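Good day; I would like, with your permission, to put a structural problem before you. What I wish to show you is a protein chain and, alongside it, a tokenised description of its three-dimensional fold. Here, with my thanks, is the record as I have it:
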Amino acid sequence: MKKTKITTPPWCPFCGQKVGRASDAIERSLSEFMVGRCGCGAVYTCDATGHNVGSAMVEAMVFACDNNWDLAWDLMPEDDYLTGRVEDYDEVTHQVVNTRNLDGRPVRGVLYFVRLHKDIAEVSRRVKAKKEQLAAQASQREVPVVPDVEPDVEPGHKPLRANKKIVRELVDKLDVDGAVRLCLDDKKSLRLMQRLLYDADEARRWRLAAFMGQVCARVATRDPGQVSQLLHRLYEACSDSAATPWGMLEAIGEIVSARTDIFGAFTRHLLSYMGDESTQPQVLRALARIAGQRSDLIRQTPFYNLFHFLQHPEPQMRGLTALLLGRIKATETTTQLLELVTDEAEFVIWEAGIPATVTVGQVAREALALIREGETK
């Protein structure tokens, strides 16, 4: 009697080839699943629990479209792409378990596959190539700084343990070196640091946000996963209607701007908080901070929805919008910016945790200069 095989290697439903274990995408994003590619061109995501297949489907579509959300939402099933799935997948052993139970563990994982039709895949590649070209051009102009990889610990190093007191002392001293080492030794360090953002003092919030940006930039050279998890928590805190998101949006802007090469995909979600008047200034500041490093990340979002804020009654809203549009060289707003050059209303800009009082007109003039500079290149 032939014995039924309990486990088999996972395969691609389109070509039948065995597929490798899914892994983290190089560029982190807000909705994160492990992803992989098959040699036939299909891509797949892993939902280890089987309870989040809908989100895994969306992630697979966006991954197949090279992170182009607009293209992904425009595609039609069957006409533009095919889907498939492999069920009863065990992420731990990278096997399909026919009995749905392995060593007493229930196995309910799903590998969700998407394969674009050839013509759509070619469109996606061309769009990606164009975006990479624009990003490279922006990088050459803006010269983003990528920190060196943090050195490994010396043999016999005893890992440090984080607590509220130690984290508070490092923050008060602005000891970036000490904070980076603590974060790499104990992953709860960033969580403790996040709690300090709940501070009624705006100056302390901005100083801490800038500090976290510096720390996370260096931690990400060795462990981008824990920084990505921090960004997830910050966004969750911003979405909590029962709490004030003090410092959260500011921290997101500082962290993403410090490592746009890894966390740039988190940028587009900031616009979700422009509907609430209490968070609008923080969103504009965060976007402007990111634009100072990678203006193309803002241009990949529906930034044109911000144009009307140039006529906002509050000076800081007019000024921050002008600051952002200047940094992305938005030629579309030249006429509106010209109307602001004589606006002498003052507001405060926070850059790297340091405040500066400026006028709306001053920022508008600087924005126009940046736009003209972009037109001559």
Summary: The chain has a mean pLDDT of 87. Residues 7-142 form one domain. Residues 118-142 form the longest helix (25 residues).
